[in-house]
Amino acid sequence: MRDELIAALAGRAERALELQSGLTSFPALAPESGGEGEEKKAVWLEERLRSFGLTDIEHVDAPDARVPSGKRPNMIVRVPGRTGRMLWVLAHLDVVPPGDFSLWNSDPWTVTRDPADPDLIYGRGVEDNQQAAVSAILVAAELKEKGITPELGLGIILVADEETGNKYGIEYVLAQRPDLISADDLVMVPDYGTKDGTLIEVAEKSTLWVKVTVTGRQCHASTPDEGKNALVAASDMILHVQGEVEARFADRNPLFTPDRSTIAPTRHDANVPNVNTIPGKDIFFVDSRILPHYDLDDVLAAMRTFMEGIAEKHGVSVELEVVNREAGPAPTPVDSPVVAALKDAVFKVYGIRCHEGGVGGGTVAKQFRVRGIAAAVWCRVLDNCHVPNESARLSHAVGDAQVYAHMLFTH
Fold first, then answer.
1. CB 123 within 8 A of CB 109
2. Residue 86 pairs with which residues in a beta bridge?
3. Beta strands in 269-389 (DSSP E)
4. Can the peptide bond before residue 324 be classed as cis, meaning omega within 30 degrees of 0?
5. Sheet harboring 262-268: ordered strands across?
6. Are 59 and 68 in contact (CB under 8 A)?
7. Contacting residues for 245 by C-beta, under 8 A, at least 6 apart
8. What are phi and psi of 217, to 5 degrees?
9. What predicted TM-score, i.e. pTM, was given to this entire model?
10. pLDDT digits 0-9 by tens, 294-345
11. What are phi and psi of 253, to 5 degrees?
């Protein structure tokens, strides 16, 4: 049955194209991005799912008065297996705005096939995250049409709101359905991937964004001794915060690249509008990506101690404000069943030997990991999400579907 399923999926590139074309035609933008949400896209998709014979569809829609439908759609689609175990695949329906239309070579809301390479398609969302949804749906549809019952059941979780925080998406689903995932289920989150498909993401760093406000005393630039130059003090902090604070959290973890905690000054706000004024206030931001075993309170305290020391040297004051804080969850064990099954399946489909690794950014897998659920993040993509002319390969959608098919026959 497994071989029959995988062989059938090999011929489903045109179905992948049809699904990608339909999904892309709906600008599923969150209200924060000026959109009306994902409802129209979800309605179309549910009709297609039912046309494939997929009728076990549960809605866990989140109320949201900001969108015309009054809700953000979350769907759970199931195809039963021989055992009670499930392979879950999470995909999100929302996309990011296309940005500057002049940078696109085609309409971002219409899938365009590359005339020189018909396997390659363009359109907003084709990679992020429609390829994941399409791959899982290809498997579910084929199981129904061929009447195949795998060892594991297949569960597809299609959620809203991934691009703007997950409050109305997977967070809401897992809060409403805390019993959804069983201890021996396998959970796949195709939220991040690489071109060669070799990386299985099992860990993510903690994130700490800090706004730093330095306050001195403004004066005329011709008499600088009468003021306290906030820009000079801030510059001193910017130049040395990385070396000073990173050194206090010096552990290394080879799962990550880079393998250390990082402290990076990033944005700097405008201060005075004219050249001949000593600024009395200066604001900048620091983006920290911290190895998950460190406590973010300790990092913030170290940063504050450092900044206050510099402020005292320059005779200014400093205030730190946390603008984003996300503690990295415990990593998915590299020897967990989902990682083992995935590595085996990827090798059988693509001939690729995967390795485990961590990332500095957050993924939706966090929502599972914080609940003690092992989740593996993997897909084979072109790694071009959020850019103009976002693209994906139909062969990757088919290949990833075959990977899921292999995993369904895991014992």
1. yes
2. 153
3. 277-278, 281-290, 317-326, 355-359
4. no
5. 262-268, 281-290, 206-215, 317-326
6. no
7. 263, 288, 299, 302, 303, 306
8. -140, 125
9. 0.89
10. 999 999 999 999 999 999 999 999 999 999 999 999 999 999 999 999 999 9
11. -140, 110
